[in-house]
Structure of Inner membrane ABC transporter permease protein YejB:
Amino acid sequence: MGAYILRRLLLIIPTLLGIMIINFVLVQFVPGGPVEQMIAQLQGGGDVFEGFAGGAEDATLSGSEENSEYLGARGLPPEFIKELEQQFGLDKPPLERFLNMMWNYLHFDFGESYFKKQTVTELVLDKMPVSITLGLWSTLIAYLVSIPLGIRKAVHDGSSFDTWTSGIIIVAYAIPAFLFAIMLLVLFAGGSYWQLFPLRGLTSDNFDQLSLVGKALDYFWHIALPVTASTIAAFATLTLLTKNSFLDEIKKHYVMTARAKGLSEGKVLYGHIFRNAMLIVIAGFPAVFIGVFFGGSVLIETIFSLDGLGRLGFEAAVGRDYPVMFGTLFLFGLIGLVVNILSDLMYVLVDPRIDFEKRAG
């Protein structure tokens, strides 16, 4: 197992490098870099992308304005533009910038945000609690609901209970998380019906003044809707996975043998079937958590006005904040690759009979 883990760890290096190279190259061809963002802010343009919609107006420019590399740089001295390029490190060739960036990342030095005046590490640590809240609670609730429901559906396969719960699961799987989040807002957060839950944030303004019990209740009151929206897709997938795993095990010969020995259905189900059927479900916990953590976090955090990692990455991409963009991409890519290894280790912990080294050989 040690050799297998070592190979997987070594594979992280070329995989992560490939991810960074592809994204870095793509960014070089995307218009509206950080210099143009700064120019738009200085001139009160608000959004640099407004300049790309005015092609007809820009075509009327003459002289030095036509030759300007940056849209919206009219009236700004070239020396100031060069200072901006030096400030953002864009005065160096792309290859040199990439190599310097990767060298710093090897030391976990992700630099400082162009526009937020904070280091990338500080920003990530500041936003991490929100994303962990969504990812952890959504994953735990999905498992707590899906496993008992999937087991009961497998035991009562083909019954009316199995039929109507399957209908609910199909609907839950088909509804995108962001659309379900909007529905929750409209129904329960003062949209057009009931004002039962807060519209935004993780805590109330008077959170510090509440008692310990009051803080806990306030916290769960605020996360109820976003966690529900994040859970919906994972809940549907895990329920079907659990049901199918149990159905596959129920049909095997060792189950028939256990029943022939006179064991009760409870002992057969939880003493023999459970461990084998739950192998793939339990081992997939890290991957499910990362999927919820990264997958729908951008839209969920935006809809519920939560200041987490998903929203941070989205705002960095829109604002061309390259240190935050590439820093979070590197961290998320590294975490995702490590979690894949942890998933394999979970398989071995749940069932020691699995030997990845023999499979690799």
About this structure: The longest helix spans residues 212-250. The two ends are 12 Å apart (CA to CA). The chain has two domains: 32-106, 120-360.
